[in-house]
Amino acid sequence: MEINNILTGDSLTILKTLKDESIDLILTSPPYFQQRDYGNGHLGIGGENSEEKYLENVLAVFFECVRVAKPTGCIVFNLGDKYINGGLSLLPYKFAIKALESSQLFLINQITWAKLNPTPRQDKRKLIQATEPFFIFAKSKDYYFDLSNYLKHLDDLNKANKGKPSEKLGKQYFDLIEKSDLNEAQKENARKSLQEAILAVHKGEIDSFRMKIKGLHKEAYGGMEGGRNNQIRNHGFTIIKILGNKLKKDIIESPVEITKDNAHPAVYPLYIVQELIKLLSKENDIILDPFCGSGTTCLAAKNLNRHYLGIEIKPEYVELANQRLKQVDFMQELFL
Ligand SMILES: C[S@@+](CC[C@H](N)C(=O)[O-])C[C@H]1O[C@@H](n2cnc3c(N)ncnc32)[C@H](O)[C@@H]1O
Fold first, then answer.
1. Which atom of ligand 1 is nearest to 296's Cα?
2. Atom 3 of ligand 1, residue of closest alpha carbon
3. Nearest Cα to 144, choosing from 292, 23, 305, 38?
4. Is the CB of 268 under 6 A from ligand 1?
5. What confidence category does residue 53 fall into, taking pLDDT thresholds of 50, 70 and 90?
6. Within 10 A of 94 (CB to CB), how many other CB atoms are there?
7. Residue 332: which pLDDT band, with cuts at 50, 70 and 90?
8. Does residue 193 have its Cβ closer than 6 Å to ligand 1?
9. Is a pLDDT exceeding 70 seen at residue 221?
10. Ligand 1 pocket, residue 10 CB under 6 Å
């Protein structure tokens, strides 16, 4: 297998020629069901007459991807839904359920792509469809996962935007602890936890916090039984940590992208693909996209010093992908 290459042909046929457990990460977006005309005629996936046949074809490729993935590898599939007879078909979820039913895989996340510029609808009795799932399947519990590399620019931005916390931060609570009816042991505990929370803000581990003390603050959930109220009742206080943007959530925002002259009708966002590659692989790993279209996955892999392998049935798209990859080389040469 020659890496850093885009192979022209049918993905299932080509995947069958790849060795077991030879790929670090597979990331792809198969053609959506009866959604677009890629001009592939009967050769392409997506033009089937029934959902069942479509799912069968996509799953056949998916299971080949599972076979070629290393035990530490993940298989990421992005699929879009479709209205059939006025109702959503839930095809992406039917795919995911079938994929799990017939394998030992773990679905570690379903990341929702929230589109910042979704296509407006003619039908005024439905909301605009602005999300699509990226399913992340892991081959084993040993999957590679580098959370610190995911959305790192947001961490850096948070740090840069955040001034030094005030020296007075949280100090008012020490007075409140003293004034409270807590017993001496509870007060000691409360002071210790407060000190730890202040330190966590200074270290940047949390954005801020609030403290609730028995008798001074209303119980958290209006008298309902629950974790926080129990903490207040049992220990005399609770500390609510505010994490701000530090939480890495299973949702990612990005506009829908288009290639120059709209040369490919269904390009997925380079930004999301790059973030997933940073999360799920390391430098020099091999990334495979069996429906590589305009080559977004290959481009993202190249930008991040990973190796790539693409498969695409339509020769014009292979050419387009190669052109996009060459532009990266050209830009790199300019800056050498
Ligand atoms: C949704 S597009 C992928 C777009 C790609 N993610 C990008 O950013 O450009 C799906 C691609 O799969 C290709 N395709 C359809 N059937 C195929 C098959 N059997 N083997 C290989 N590629 C196929 C289509 O030509 C199309 O370019």
1. 8
2. 293
3. 23
4. yes
5. very high
6. 16
7. low
8. no
9. no
10. yes
**DSSP type of residue 212:** E
Q: Which atom of ligand 1 is nearest to the CA of 292?
A: 5
Angle at 302 (CA atoms; ends 300, 308), nearest 5 degrees: 90
Indicate whether residue 317 lines ligand 1 (CB < 6 A).
yes
Going by C-alpha positions, the residue among 100, 109, 26 that lies closest to residue 291 is 26
Residue 207 pLDDT: 82
pLDDT-derived band at 31, boundaries 50, 70, 90: very high
DSSP 8-state symbol, 206: S
Cβ neighbours for 143, distance < 8 A, ≥ 6 positions apart = 72, 73, 74, 106, 108, 280
Q: In this structure, which topology does domain 5-151+248-334 adopt according to CATH?
A: Rossmann fold (3.40.50)
Amino acid at 178: E
Helix ranges (H only) for 203-250 are 227-235
Which tokens in the block code for residue 314? Answer: 């339509």
Is residue 311 within 6 Å of ligand 1 at its C-beta? yes
Q: Which atom of ligand 1 is nearest to the CA of 43?
A: 19
Q: Give phi and psi for 83, each to the nearest 5.
A: -80, 125
DSSP label at residue 246: G
Question: Per residue in 63-121, pLDDT tens?
Answer: 999 999 999 999 999 999 989 899 999 999 999 999 999 889 999 999 999 999 998 87
E strands present in 79-204: 83-84, 87-88, 106-115, 131-138
- CA dist., res. 251 & res. 92, Å (int): 16
Crossing angle for the helix pair 315-334 and 296-303, to the nearest 10 degrees:
20
Residue ranges, CATH 3.40.50.150, the chain: 5-151+248-334
Distance 11 CA to ligand 1 centre (A): 9
Strands (E), the chain: 5-8, 23-28, 69-78, 83-84, 87-88, 106-115, 131-138, 208-213, 237-242, 251-254, 286-289, 307-312
Name the token pair of 304.
């991040």
Structure tokens at 254: 């990005």
Answer whether residue 206 shows pLDDT above 90.
no
